[in-house]
Write a structure and sequence with these properties.
about 20% strand; about 500 residues; 9-stranded mixed sheet; 5-stranded parallel sheet
Length: about 500
């Protein structure tokens, strides 16, 4: 479809977002014979976060064969943990091969969706002013789509280039320049080793040290790729083995002995990698392992020990035209500033106004505590499904397992609507409340309560994490219980 054109249009299903979640849903919808579908994406192509995140060193921290759809295996993954370009190519191929790409409106951000209760349809308005209507809207914008810009005094005064890691500017030359990187999360741990060899000086500003496990990245041999291509069952067994390993080693409950074992492994990695006791102490986390995202890297510790690389642990006080000044009074002269400060992860559906039944607004209801039934549906918003919604982020496995389970749930819901002649489904307050009460009980015993992280809202509510393994969620979403929904029949005539 390309970019949006003028006029008003009507479809059965409108999907907002053409990343992994939206594409997976689109593929399953077409496979189920539900082809009255349109997908919108604000980028100039499909791929979502893997299209827009192009910073140096960008790679997945889930093994390649598991970071793929069970219905679209890729026998040709080149290594254990694929890089950004290879993942994007995989998603683009999935879109083309399935026919979903022809249903994507690229370079088109949806700004608002408003429920028309009389017609039982959603009214969508795009950034171009075009209007669409749809019986069902599915948000697949993901959790990592709104970069978090830090509130640092004087940031606007910096004279050199300032860029967020999620919006990398490849026109900015780093070679031979003094570069500052703010943050030590997943992107920073990949960026620092990737650029350290080119820059004249690199200052990494650390607020808290992350727990890091060895990545153990290895290439797949030509024989491996040929075997997976010739024997689909071999590829499935390989993928299933990785899934079982991650499922069996996912730990997020306080007192789980697996957490202690993982911490010991991470400490051993640090001790084996960093000989200097002072630097090692600075790189030793203060937080309990698992309360923040655990990172994977084989080369970060080596990069941080290079003579021209500096780890700065004093807090940032302010930014001047040419430097970052820390709380200890030290001035760190810089030419380029990189903000590896993550995303507004708990600001779900950022940039999209959602107005439901009786004029209620989803962002108002989610101001302090985003919640949904199974992470997908909310009372007052009929025929709205959310992929990668509140409390569906994985604590140690592939998010594609969750996204695929959610896509299958949406397909089952649409089939149930067809079968029973329903115009609308709206989750009941009772089902919503019961699910979230149980969720709160299960979250109370997790390590995520032990520190501040992007998992939590400013009020302290854990809004992103699922306190169960992927298999639990897959089982919980395997059946659409219509008793959980208010059901409105189609009115003929």
């Amino acid at each position: 479809m390309g970019s949006a054109g003028a006029g008003r249009r009507d479809v059965r299903v409108a999907v907002i977002g053409a990343g992994a979640g939206g594409l997976g849903l689109g593929i399953l919808l077409l496979g189920a014979g539900i082809d009255d579908v349109v997908l919108f994406d604000r980028a100039d192509g499909v791929g979502g976060t893997w299209r827009v995140n192009t910073y140096p060193g960008a790679e997945c921290d889930v093994p390649s064969h598991l970071y793929s759809f069970s219905f679209a295996l890729n026998p040709g993954w080149t290594k254990t943990f694929a890089g950004q370009a290879e993942i994007l190519a995989y998603l683009e191929e999935c879109a083309e091969r399935s026919g979903v790409r022809d249903r994507v409106q690229t370079s088109t951000a949806v700004r608002s969706v408003v429920w028309d209760d009389e017609r039982c349809r959603w009214r969508l308005r795009t950034e171009h002013g075009d209007e669409w209507t749809a019986q069902v809207v599915v948000s697949a914008v993901g959790m990592f789509n709104a970069p978090a810009w830090p509130a640092i005094a004087g940031l606007d005064a910096f004279a050199g280039p300032v860029m967020h890691s999620a919006r990398w500017d490849h026109d900015v030359e780093l070679a031979g320049r003094r570069v500052g990187v703010v943050g030590t999360g997943a992107s920073a741990v990949q960026i620092v080793p990737a650029v350290a060899g080119d820059v004249a000086h690199l200052a990494l500003f650390q607020r808290s040290a992350p727990w890091i496990l060895p990545r153990n990245d290895r290439p797949y041999s030509d024989d491996d790729k040929l075997r997976f291509a010739a024997d689909a069952m071999a590829a499935r067994r390989h993928r299933k083995g990785i899934e079982r390993f991650y499922e069996g080693n996912t730990a997020f409950r306080v007192g789980d002995p697996r957490l202690a074992a993982i911490e010991a492994f991470a400490r051993g990695h640090l001790e084996a990698s960093v000989a200097d006791p002072g630097l090692r102490a600075a790189l030793t986390p203060d937080d309990p392992i698992g309360c923040k995202r655990i990172l994977l890297s084989d080369d970060f510790y080596a990069a941080i020990q290079q003579d021209h690389v500096e780890l700065v642990t004093a807090p940032i006080d302010r930014v001047t035209a040419s430097a970052v000044v820390t709380g200890d009074g030290a001035e760190h002269p810089l030419d380029v500033l990189v903000l590896a400060t993550g995303y507004r992860a708990t600001d779900y559906l950022h940039g999209l106004e959602v107005v439901g039944r009786d004029g209620r607004r989803l962002h108002d209801e989610w101001a302090s505590e985003p919640r949904a039934h199974l992470g997908m549906t909310v009372p007052g918003y009929p025929n709205l499904f959310i992929l990668y919604g509140p409390n569906t982020n994985q604590g140690g496995n592939s998010i594609l397992l969750i996204l695929e389970a959610q896509a299958r749930y949406v397909v089952r819901a649409l089939r149930a609507m067809e079968r029973d002649g329903l115009a609308a489904l709206e989750v009941t307050d009772e089902a919503f409340t019961a699910y979230n009460r149980s969720l709160d009980d299960d979250l109370a015993g997790t390590v995520w309560t032990s520190c501040r992280s992007y998992f939590r809202t400013p009020s302290g509510h854990i809004a992103t994490q699922l306190p169960h393994p992927a298999g639990w969620y897959r089982g919980r979403t395997h059946h659409v219980d219509l008793a959980d929904f208010h059901r409105r029949p189609v009115v003929e005539g």
